[in-house]
Amino acid sequence: LWRQRHALARLTPQPAPVAAVALGGLAFLWMLGELVDVWSVRQFSVVLMIPVLVWLILGARIAWQMKFPLGYLLFAVPFGEFLVQPLMVYTADFTVAMVRLTGIPVYRDGMYFTLPTGNWSVVEACSGIRYLIASVALGTLYAYLMYRSWRRRLLFLAFAITLPILANGLRAYMIVMIGHLSDMQLAVGVDHLLYGWVFFGIVIFLMFWVGSFWREDTPRPLQHNAVGPEPAPRFRGSNHLAATTALAMGVLVAAPAYAAWIDREDRWSAPDLGALPERVGQWQLTDAEPDWAPLYHHARDEWQGSYAAGGDAVGVYVGVYAEQNRHGKMVTWANTLIERNSDDWRQRSGGRGYASSRQALLSGPDQRLLVWQWYWVDGHLTTSRHVVKGREALSRLMGGRDLAANIVIFAPYDDSPEAVNTAMASFAEAMLPEVQARLTRLEGQ
Fold it and tell me: Alpha-carbon distance 155 to 139, whole Å?
């Protein structure tokens, strides 16, 4: 903004009441995020309100002149979690391929791989998401300051996105090779992180060095009155300023006020699933306690049991959630099938199972499990967390409740997960209608 001060001084502020429509839309989005506690929606909405308020109070011409500084505020929002898993897969693929290309035998199991000298795993810190976000943020600023043509800016931004992804794969490969060649004496402790950050610093330096060959940051001729200071701008239509400001304040206050009113108290009784059914179809409830359960917290009520039929055994878990703003969320980063980065358990995606469930293959101490998972919300089964949050938000917006459930069916297997598919499908066909009927009754209470 300071670099543009002379251009801005020549513009006359003029309130733009039409921007209140955009401000209202962002306030509405913020309210939806507040009702279901989605941080990213709330944070993006608040940050985007800043340029809209500039547009509303100072006018479209001034807001457009300030477009890059205002747009750059979006980097204040912590985002990118959705990229972690794909980046982890890429890092594992790249590292294993390079190790094999080097001529070293390697056995891979999901995100874990074994070399003759030791074991390695790709965890969230290895995804390179921090490298990528930092590179894009720095690269965007560099492109804006060093280039004038949008073509060069966009090309450099694409370079700033691609380079850290490739570099992170190379970094992971180099660390594995350092560990392998040193017989697991180096790059397995704090120096593991140190090598990564030094390497990233070198990569960023090279990125800027390469970009400097096409720089266009020569000073532009001054086009302002150099004789004396610019005259102070006056508001055009200043009589509308107070009304516009009051309108903005009204819009901004309405959203949190309505959200607070909706969330004022528990208006429903605590959900009670009742006892597990003794029998569903041919499946009989047993006294055996399942030795595994999904790592989901804050359920208001739970079912957890084992069923048997014809020599087959299947486990079931149902956790029901309600009034989640006060008692805990179902769909949240902390709720997973197994502990993140666990040393005892490993998880591999298995595609889709019965009734479009999310299928996972878990391997832990002395057992392997085939798992099918669904979410139940607003009378529907889904595997999408976004659908869950969307339906919960709409229900709460209309004054309803955010009742939801996590449904998991699982069975141990020895050699192949296909061996228990038939038994699990038979159990799911009998159990799912019973679970949905119980949840529907809870929704009506």
Answer: 11
Give the chain's radius of gyration (CA, Å). 28
Of 316, 293, 325, which Cα lies nearest the Cα of 402?
325
Residues in the chain: 445
pTM of the model: 0.73
What residues contact residue 329 under an 8 Å CB cut-off, 6+ apart? 36, 37, 298, 321, 335
The predicted model gives 286-297 an average pLDDT of: 90
Helices (H) and strands (E) in the chain, counts: 13, 12
How many other CB atoms are there within 10 angstroms of residue 102's CB atom?
12
Rounded distance between C-alpha atoms, residue 329 and residue 335, angstroms: 9
Q: Which pair of structure tokens corresponds to residue 69?
A: 């500084």
Residue 402 phi/psi, 5-degree rounding, is -110, 45
What is the DSSP annotation of 239-259?
GGHHHHHHHHHHHHHHHHHHH
Query: Cβ(19)–Cβ(55) under 8 Å?
Result: yes
pLDDT in tens, 174-218: 888 888 888 878 766 666 667 777 888 888 888 888 888 888 766
255 burial (CB, 10 Å; 0-12 / 13-18 / 19+) is buried
Q: Give tens-digit pLDDT for 53-104.
A: 999 999 999 999 999 999 999 999 988 888 888 898 899 999 999 999 999 9
Q: Which of 385, 332, 395 is nearest to 39 (CA)?
A: 332
For residue 372, what is the enclosing H or E element?
strand 367-377
**Residue 390 CB-density burial (10 A; 0-12 exposed, 13-18 middle, 19+ buried):** middle
CA distance linking residue 213 with residue 66, whole number of Å: 27
